Amino acid sequence: MSLLVGLGNPGPAYAGNRHNIGFMAVDEICRRHGFEPYRSQFHGLAATGKVADRKILALKPQTFMNESGRAVAAAGRFYKIPAEDMIVIHDDIDLRPGKMRVKRGGGAGGHNGLRDIDAHMGRDYRRVRLGVGHPGDPDRVQSYVLRDFAKAEQAWVARLIDTVAIHFSQLVEGDDAGFMTAVARDAPPPAPTPKGESSHGI
User: What is the pLDDT of residues 16-75, one digit of tens each?
Assistant: First the structure.
């Protein structure tokens, strides 16, 4: 069994936030691949399904972002899933909007959800980094990620999470490079916003 984790904050007030793109992606993966309905479990919402003949437990921690590791550790312990068999999908301000990268291990890069998972599970899990862009000022990062995607961003967000879900079986099979290539081909990042304009609604 593999554990698929989407990072975000619980509740309708946060549902459209940039910080919640991990939740959005996991929801679409579950929908497209016919997972069972979510149930409350492991300090989160959990759903089971099968992708590429492998059983998957999808988890959306409901602990708020900075305690995501508590939910991940609870699920991992129950099913004896090591970090090596975990995939975590999260927002990444260091990637331009719409860009996607997969990596195993590494630092948290200032992401509180990853930092807490690292503390509970170590770093040897795969991270699917979904770029949401940077506000340009470090002091504005928190307010930026806790705001909804702007209307102008909705198209690329929908295309990106849909494409991640379509090609998710490649990731499950361990073909990280093929998965990245397929997503980049089918959901290329939007053109950068011209200087002086903003698509972030800030």
Answer: 999 999 999 999 999 999 999 999 999 999 999 999 999 999 999 999 999 999 999 999
For the cut 50, the answer to whether the pLDDT of residue 200 exceeds it is: no
Catalytic position from the list 19, 43, 90, 111: 19
Token output for 85: 């068999």
The full DSSP string for 131-188 is E----SSGGGHHHHHTSBPPGGGHHHHHHHHHHHHHTHHHHHTT-HHHHHHHHHHHSP
Question: How far is residue 9's CA from residue 184's CA, in Å, rounded to a whole number?
Answer: 27
8 A C-beta contact, residue 46 and residue 39: yes
- Superfamily holding 2-186: Peptidyl-tRNA hydrolase (3.40.50.1470)
Q: Would you say 74 and 46 are in contact if contact means Cβ atoms under 8 Å apart?
A: no
Active site includes 33?
no
